[in-house]
Every structure is written in C-alpha cells, then in structure tokens.
Design brief:
Helix content is about 30%, strand content about 20%. The chain is of the alpha/beta class. It has a seven-stranded parallel beta sheet with strand order 1-2-3-4-7-8-9. A two-stranded antiparallel ribbon has the order 5-6. About 40% of the residues are buried. The structure holds zinc ion (2 copies).
C-alpha cells in the first residue's frame, strides 16, 4: 500500500475526525505508513485576522506536534510522519522559514491556495472564476507554483494543478506551462504530490494531470502520494487510481521523508 502523506484533522477547523480515527482507517486499509500534514497557522496575517475555519491557531502547533509524537510511540507496526501543509505567500518567505525552523517536521508540503489574496480553492469564493480570464488565471497559478518550487522552503509541491478544482479549464495548450513548472521543481529540488482529492471535486481528475506528471517524470522530479483527507474515511481514497496514474507516467518509486531527508521506496 502506498503511504498517505497528506492527512488533515479537526484541528484545522474545516476537517472532521481526530488523529486516532485517521490512524484506525489507515490500519484497516492496510497502510504501513502515513503522515499528518495539517494546515500551518496563517502566518502571513496578524493573529486577529486569521480565520479559525481555515487553519489551526499558532498556539495549537506545539500541541499538534506533541499529539503526533504521542501517537508515534503508541502505534507499533505503523509509521507516522510529522508533516505540515504550508501556504506559499510571496513576500512572506522569511516569516514562513522562521516558523518552520522552530519545529522538527519530517516534511513540508508547499501549497498555492491564494492568487493575489483570492482563495481560489475556497467553495465560497468560486464565483470569482466567472469574472476572470481562465487562461490568464492558469498562467498566474503556474507562475506562483514555480516560485514556490524555487523558494527553498518546501519538500513537496502539493496538488500541483489545484487551479482546475472547480472544473474551469484553460482553453490554451498547457504543455509549455507544465514543462516550465516541471523544470522549476527539478531546479528547486522539490518533489510533487499525486493527490487524489481532485477525484472528489468538479475537476474529477487526480492532481496533477497525466500530461503534467509525465513531464515531471521526464525531469526526474520525485513524487509523493496523498489523499488530502479531511474526513477519516477518505484515508487512501482512490489509491488504485493513484498507483495507475503513477505507473502510466512512468514512475516506479516514490518518496517519504524523515527529518526532511528523502527516503525512496518502490511503488
Ligand atoms: Zn484543508
Ligand atoms: Zn491544500
């Protein structure tokens, strides 16, 4: 079974289930390793402006880490990694670097969820797509991903074509953007994530698209796998399809992390 390195918990304010419930499902499905990667506190905003429905509060972070440590000790036969999902906000790189340095994460998933302050993956803000030029949005999105890949902050770029989430598809040929982005990941020495959450939203497709994943493979960008579960029953969701997607792109191995060092495992 592939390791699921992208699990959320009720701590973030918009997921359900505590860590024990995610672990129980992982065990039931026969996983040998998982990683929690809950949303990092909204470091780019003053504490008073942070939305408790989007991410944990900063004072929760030590408790999050302590919970993972406790569960690592309590669970034999299941490897549990300590990850975190961190938003990439251009101009706030130093704040994020300072925050990440203070904690012993095994890995950091880097995510682009905002374009110029617009949370484009937020279902409450989906109307904004109708006011935008979708091709232009895709250009902006992938440029932001490339910047994130080169920022030296992240181990993995999560859901690397999240901009397709609500089914607004570019009319232009995306090949060039995909290739630039794959190259940026290689140059920035980051992995990319095959994320099955795309199957559960209007996009109806794993992140990233197969064309994009094949280019990542060509540029020798390593991969991780994640369900992005926000409910315990979604642990390892779509796992057969994730494996097929990886094999179709030519991958034969994937990576996990310990103290921010990669370990390669066969697919
Ligand atoms: Zn979330
Ligand atoms: Zn995300």
């Amino acid at each position: 079974m592939l390791p699921d390195l992208h699990l959320h918990t009720s701590r973030c304010g918009h997921a359900t289930g505590d860590m024990e419930e995610y672990i129980a499902v992982a065990r039931y499905r026969g996983l040998k390793s998982i990683g929690f990667a809950d949303h990092v506190p909204m470091y780019w905003l003053p504490p008073g402006e942070r939305d408790p429905a989007l991410a944990m509060a900063e004072e929760e972070l030590p408790r999050y880490i302590e919970s993972v440590r406790r569960l690592q000790r309590a669970n034999t036969g299941l490897t549990i990694y300590l990850g975190i999902e961190a938003d990439y906000i251009p101009g706030c790189e130093d704040q994020l670097r300072t925050l990440l340095c203070r904690y012993p994460f095994d890995y950091v998933l880097g995510s682009v969820h905002y374009l110029g302050g617009w949370g484009f993956d937020n279902p409450d803000l989906v109307q904004e797509y109708t006011r935008r030029d979708v091709d232009e949005l895709y250009r902006q999105y992938f440029q932001m991903v490339q910047q994130a890949a080169r920022a030296g902050l992240f181990d993995v770029i999560a859901h690397p074509d999240l901009i397709k989430k609500f089914g607004y598809r570019a009319r232009m040929d995306l090949r060039e953007l995909y290739e630039e982005t794959a190259r940026a990941c290689a140059e920035g020495d980051v992995c990319i994530e095959v994320n099955t959450a795309g199957l559960r939203v209007p996009a109806g497709e794993i992140y990233p698209s197969l064309d994009f994943l094949k280019l990542c493979r060509r540029y020798q960008v390593p991969v991780t796998v994640g369900s992005d579960a926000h409910q315990p029953h979604l642990v390892a969701y779509g796992w057969d399809r994730a494996r097929d997607w990886l094999l179709a792109a030519g991958y034969r191995e994937l990576v996990v992390f310990r103290e921010r060092r990669r370990e390669v495992i066969p697919l």
